[in-house]
Amino acid sequence: MIYPVPRKNNLNGVTVCISSVKVQGECSATAEKILSEYDVDITGVFPVEINISDSRRTTYIEELSMLSDEKYFITVSNEKIVIEASCRRGVFRAVHTLAKLIKKNEIRTGTLEDYPLFSRRGYIEGFYGATWKQEKRLSVMRLMAANGMNSFYYAPKDDEYHRAKWREVYPEKELAELKSLFDTAAENEIDVCWCVGPGLTYKYTSETDFEALIAKFMNVYSIGVRNFGLLLDDIPSDFQYEDDATVYDSVVDAHIELINKVFRILKNADSDITLTVCPTQYCGECDDYYISKFGKGIPSEIKIFWTGRQICSSFLTCREADDFMRATAHMPLYWDNYPVNDAEMFQEMHLGAVKGRDKELYRHSEGLISNVMEYAECSKIPLLTIADYLWNPVAYDCDNSLVNAQQEILGEKAEIFKYIADHLCVSCVSRYGSELMSEVLSHLSFLVATGDTQKAICEFKEYNKKMRECLATVSDTSVELFAEMQKWVKKFSLCCDVLDAILAVWVENTPENKTILSELIEKYNSDAVVLAGFCLRETAEKTLEL
């Protein structure tokens, strides 16, 4: 099985053993580069032919009744492999799939037809907290491109040129860094949308402010960016300047006029420019006055961000998307606040798979953009599951996708990593964690209750041994993922101590052992970092009652 799961994989004939390939045809340099990144030998003789044609077969998705530049075919025979696509983007997607098939020894004769169901699939650096370093941005971008995402929104709240210094154009050094990011995105078929958030200090009646905003857009336009975002989220819901309150009836009227003026200027400068906006009301009841008037007051080609019923929505449904469409005359572009863990969630680490998003949501929305954590390496695990969902939500299985994501990021360490990952999935999409620990402790308690205490003790020792082995693994801060997790690793260490103390009471029920357990569980509970929950406390409390 490869991920994202292809739409129609009919490579079900005889196995074709391929140890090396020879790429022929258009975009061969692109294909060779990708295959080399997967350590596929490109100096061999087995032919991989690439055919590019702008035809109905390579561009039209029947079930969606729409054109796509990401559709492709891979046809395998005993003599050769043929890739068909309409352009470089389709070839890029196809070769990544081919490389994964080769690495997993899943090349068989037949035909694979593949295309994404969500048209806009990506992530946004839109959190509060330390911005990602450039090397992290590039690393995440390449990984997401390899797994089918096609959009990156640049909007870090703590980038001073995004919000605080929105009136100032980027200095040469910062602009060059953005250019490098844009160039890498273009190489990896990712569309960059650069966003600005002027609302904290913007004066709607000021022509000077408007000119500064347009100058900022043109500053970024100069490096090749053609997709822009104007974000009016997390700003006061009323006017801050008396002049604005005098001229406009309400804030939404000012926002509509601003967006329409910006869009008109940008489109006059370049008809290829796109604009995405985030309203001040970006969640809740979609038929409220502000968002209804907002949507119906701007052109339909402008995309509107929406987070759903809540800021961090547990569920995103087709019915709610249709309600949004009726109220605003726009399909929502979901700003999905998962796996982000800023604000009140800063004690949580979100490493679980995405859940609660309708399988048919692609028919009712412009797409989905996931807001990431300030922890770039940690973000990769949930992002991989989001990439799987967005490419093929019909075949998406959250459990299998998560296992694959952990294996892709951690390799041979994935099996032991699950002992801590078990506790790091409590979030807006899953209020339940510690499933493995809960199952283990419930089983051990059953053994004790039915008189098989010695077996319980033996199994408890084995479980605690695995926990300690996991602790030793994730304590290695030379691994970047583990270095980001140290706040949670510290509490995981306490968790291991509590488990050992519970076991000690089971082995020898003495006042001394109970005192040690009581002190440890109190220390564990006093640490606000979110880790193992009720099952650990319940077992400790019942043990103290023995």
Question: How would you portray this structure in words?
Answer:
This protein has 546 residues and is α/β, with parallel strands linked by helices. 45% of the residues lie in helices and 15% in strands. The protein is built from 19 helices and 16 strands. An 8-stranded parallel barrel has the order 9-10-11-12-13-14-15-16, surrounded by 4 helices. Strands 1-8-6-7-3-2 form a 6-stranded mixed sheet, with helices on one face. A two-stranded antiparallel sheet has the order 4-5. The protein is globular and about 80 Å long. It starts with 7 loop residues before the first strand and ends with a helix. The mean pLDDT is 97.
Total number of strands: 16
Gyration radius from CA atoms, angstroms: 26 Å
What coarse outline follows from CA principal-axis ratios? Answer: globular
Number of domains: 3
What is the class of the largest domain in the CATH system? Answer: Alpha Beta
Average pLDDT number: 97
Q: How much helix, percentage-wise, in residues? A: 40-55%
Summarize the biggest pleated sheet. Answer: 8 strands, parallel, barrel
Q: What is the CATH homologous superfamily assignment of the largest domain?
A: Glycosidases
